[in-house]
Input
Amino acid sequence: MEPIVLTKIGETLIEDPVHQVNEQDTFSKMPIAVLGVHDICKGWISVKGVSATHNIIYCRSCGLRIQFPREIDTYGKLRQWCADQMKAEKNRNHEINGFLTMNRPIG
Ligand SMILES: [Zn+2]
Output
């Protein structure tokens, strides 16, 4: 599986070489809820339910924590969801920057 880009600074989830996965695999299939490895950091990334509506993935080594809706239950859905979040944030920043530019005092 291709690494999944998790954050805007380019952190990725890579598959554990011992438990190779594909996009359709559900998280519940993974032994002891380990989804893979936090690339570069090399910590284990796990998934955990934390509320009625949301799960988190978290890194056991560095404290990375990402919350996402419970419907996101496969690697493919996680990849898409992360990409959508980053795109949405980029658009929000463009809007804010556009607003600040428009309202900058003249002179
Ligand atoms: Zn980490």
